[in-house]
Design goal:
The protein has 359 residues and is of the alpha/beta class. It contains eleven helices and ten strands. It folds into two domains: 135 residues, ATPase, nucleotide binding domain (Nucleotidyltransferase, domain 5, 2-Layer Sandwich); 177 residues, ATPase, nucleotide binding domain (Nucleotidyltransferase, domain 5, 2-Layer Sandwich).
Length: 359
């Protein structure tokens, strides 16, 4: 089973070929980070324009690197949400064209579910059937949520952020500290020599029901707007001299610690009674988060499963892999040329025992 995957939900133009849902034959990513740095974040129109410009070559390269011919492909998979509407439409248009040209089925993939599947990519990665019930922390620039994976392709949303995603908090904090974009790697690098206990920033813990939770348990939910505001007020009261890199390092380390502690504390609440936690999404690359989460889970006998670094950031291998697994198991959630972009596609709060968690 050979699947060509396409991913254009945000600012990464990506294509990949995956065999039997696990063996990654190619994984090509054209990153637009440098194009958006001057704006301090992703500009949707610029992202879409560069997807149009670069996607044909990226897809061609993915097929060539995989060493397969077009006729050998069994299906075309594409992210149809969530993401930037204009960016998603570029990938969908390309995927539909390829599906028609090759006379192969078109499989629509939820970007969030693809991140969850990323821990199963690669020859040494566990198969979905081998992990058992577990809790997944999905943490990225646009999403932060806790999901319980009951069994393969069956999920239950436990909690989510009520305001900013963790990645957004990193981006905004980096902007306040003059560290540039993207904020996560910038704050991690700047804080490497800093003292994470130098400045105390609030941990976003929700102790009561919140209107934005929609019935979710506040113990499993996040808030990052407070730590961002606290940093702004701290800098207003204690302006940071332009050349004081030591103090900048302390602030970066302390700010990062507040975000990491918030994530870890929510995971520990949700991990009770399970033997495994997975960490997926772009922020999963953060070394401090990995280390603190592993240190907190290990004494409890809970294994931490982290996707390969190549599959943490947005990529098409996770899209093709999940599509291949769905095809092999006969559980297709969205398919066909009638597929449309769903920018706000999300996980349902409850999941029927025989269904996936796609709205």
């Amino acid at each position: 089973m050979l699947v060509l995957g396409i991913e254009t939900s945000c600012d990464e133009t990506a294509a990949a070929v995956v065999q039997d849902g696990r063996a990654v034959l190619s994984n090509i990513v054209f990153s637009q980070v440098a194009l958006h740095q001057a704006y301090g974040g992703v500009v949707p129109e610029i992202a879409a324009r560069h997807h149009v410009e670069h996607l044909p070559a990226v897809v061609q390269q993915a097929v060539e690197v995989a060493g397969v011919c077009w006729s050998a492909l069994d299906a075309v998979a594409v992210t149809y949400g969530p993401g930037l509407a204009s960016a998603l439409l570029v990938g969908l248009a390309a995927a539909k064209g390829l599906s028609l040209r090759l006379q192969r089925p078109l499989v629509g993939i939820n970007h969030l579910e693809a991140h969850l599947y990323s821990v199963c990519l690669g020859a040494t990665a566990p198969r979905p059937e081998d992990i058992g019930p577990y809790v997944a922390l999905m943490v990225s620039g646009g999403h932060t949520c806790l999901v319980r994976v009951e069994r393969p392709l069956t999920y239950r949303l436990l909690g989510r952020t009520v305001d900013d995603a963790a990645g957004e908090a990193f981006d905004k904090g980096a902007g306040l500290l003059g560290l540039g974009y993207p904020g996560g790697p910038a704050i991690e690098a700047a804080g490497r020599e800093g003292d994470p206990r130098r400045v105390h920033f609030p941990r976003g813990v929700l102790r009561r029901k919140h209107a934005r939770l929609g019935g979710l348990d506040p113990r499993y939910c996040f808030s990052f707007s407070g730590v961002k505001t606290a940093l702004r007020y701290h800098l207003r009261a204690h302006p940071l001299p332009a050349n004081d890199e030591r103090q900048r390092a302390h602030l970066a380390a302390s700010y990062q610690e507040a975000i990491v502690d918030t994530l870890v504390s929510r995971v520990l609440e949700a991990a009770e009674g399970t033997g495994c936690v997975s960490l997926v999404g772009g922020v999963a690359l953060n070394r401090r988060l990995r280390a603190k989460l592993d240190a907190a889970l290990r004494p409890r006998g809970v294994r931490l499963l982290v996707a390969d670094r190549a599959y943490c950031m947005d990529n098409a291998a996770m899209v093709a892999g999940l599509a291949g697994y769905r095809l092999l198991t006969g559980r297709l959630a969205a398919q066909g040329l009638e597929l449309d972009a769903v920018p706000h596609l999300d996980f349902a709060t409850t999941v029927p025992a025989t269904d996936s968690a796609l709205n």
